[in-house]
Design goal:
Oligomer: single chain
CATH topology of the largest domain: Rossmann fold
Helix content: 25-40%
Shape: globular
Number of helices: 10
Number of domains: 2
Distance between the termini: 6 Å
CATH architecture of the largest domain: 3-Layer(aba) Sandwich
Strand content: 15-25%
CATH superfamily of the largest domain: P-loop containing nucleotide triphosphate hydrolases
Strand order of the largest sheet: 3-2-4-1-5-6-7
Order of helices and strands: EHEHEHEHEHEHEHEHEEEEHH
Structural class: alpha/beta
């Protein structure tokens, strides 16, 4: 069973060339409150500016051979992840090349031999202007398979479409995405701006004390650029959250039900859960991103306690709160069968 110490979410940032992946990554790097590590392809024009990356993580890791999807196994990626996650980072973001298959990358994270990492989701960035000319050129065929792996789809550049047909065009893209992935959350973004809280935990409004000053420098440079004539500030839609805490252990069946059918409007669920078992209470650390569940044993503390936080855009707070409360309701008589049902979700390795 994997240790929970310093498990770092690894987020895959994918999308067709020119969709806005690097812009989204730079936006995240400008935000204070978290230490962000980055792995980039060495694949032609999709490279992030080397000075930016080296300043942010002080020693960028790149994958030999260029395209991550061409790796024969997870060895090269594991080396990069092991190197980065030993630095006390809060999140690692992989910016995949435009031709990389996100499903392949997601599988490499799932089977990674680095105990300090866990899957953090797959963000697929879509260029609303070029989508039907580059990525989905045959509307009578099935939509692109790359949407299968996505846990979040960001439709970018919709503001650049002609106003008279904008809504119709974006709605059609959303429909095509849902033909491949019915439950995936979809965000409409301007200049790739999304709330970092959807991607990773942001616990502060200032840079960590040990963080290199690149984040602050990037923000200052960005603000100066935005203040020039012709450049406006594009705000992002803020994520909402619901928190439920309980002091009594819950039934494993109740928690398994939440994992199998999470609230539709919650993109992430995180927390620590005390679960009743026939042998006594057990504590678990839980992270859910989209349909990806990461459940690992947590260290015991004095007295069982649970707290779950759900995060999402357009969060149906009443429904989410009711679902979390049901999942954390005090256990009556836990059974071995219920414990086995939950045990299927435990991360092993």
């Amino acid at each position: 069973m994997r240790s929970v110490a310093s498990r770092v979410p690894v987020v895959i940032l994918s999308g067709h060339l020119g969709s806005g992946k690097t812009t989204l990554l730079n936006h995240l790097l400008r935000q204070p409150g978290a230490r962000v590590g980055v792995i980039v392809n060495d694949f032609g024009e999709v490279n992030i500016d080397a000075g930016l990356v080296s300043g942010q993580i002080d020693d960028p890791a790149s994958i030999a051979g260029g395209c991550l999807c061409c790796l024969p196994d997870a060895g090269g990626l594991d080396d990069a992840l092991a190197k980065l996650t030993g630095r006390g980072l809060d999140v690692v973001i992989i910016e995949a090349s435009g031709i990389a298959e996100p499903g392949t990358l997601a599988q490499l994270i799932r089977v990674s031999r680095v105990d300090r990492v866990r899957p953090g989701g797959v963000i697929e960035v879509v260029d609303a202007v070029e989508y039907f000319r580059t990525l989905d050129t045959m509307p009578t065929a099935e939509p692109p398979a790359r949407f299968d792996a996505a846990t979040l789809v960001v439709i970018n550049k919709g503001d650049l479409l002609p106003a008279d047909g904008r809504e119709q065009a974006i709605t059609r893209i959303e429909q095509r995405v849902r033909e491949r992935n019915e439950r995936v959350p979809i965000i409409r973004a301007v200049r790739s701006r999304i709330d970092p809280a959807l991607v990773y935990d942001v616990a502060a409004t200032e840079d960590p004390a040990d963080q290199l000053p690149i984040g602050a420098l990037l923000r200052a440079a960005h603000e100066e650029h935005q203040d020039r004539p012709g450049h406006g500030h594009a705000a992002h839609q803020h994520a909402a959250s619901v928190t439920v805490a309980r002091t009594e252990p819950t039934d494993p069946d109740r928690l398994a039900t939440l994992l199998e059918e999470p609230p539709a409007t919650a993109y992430r669920i995180k927390g620590v859960v005390a679960v009743a078992t026939p042998r006594g209470p057990r504590r678990y650390l839980l992270n859910v991103v989209g349909r990806t569940v990461d459940l690992v044993a947590a260290s015991p503390t004095t007295g069982p306690a649970s707290e779950l936080v759900a995060i999402g855009l357009d969060l149906d707070a009443d429904d989410v709160r009711a679902r979390l409360e049901a999942a954390l309701a005090p256990a009556q008589q836990p059974t071995v069968a219920a414990s086995r049902r939950l045990h299927r979700y435990l991360a092993t390795g």
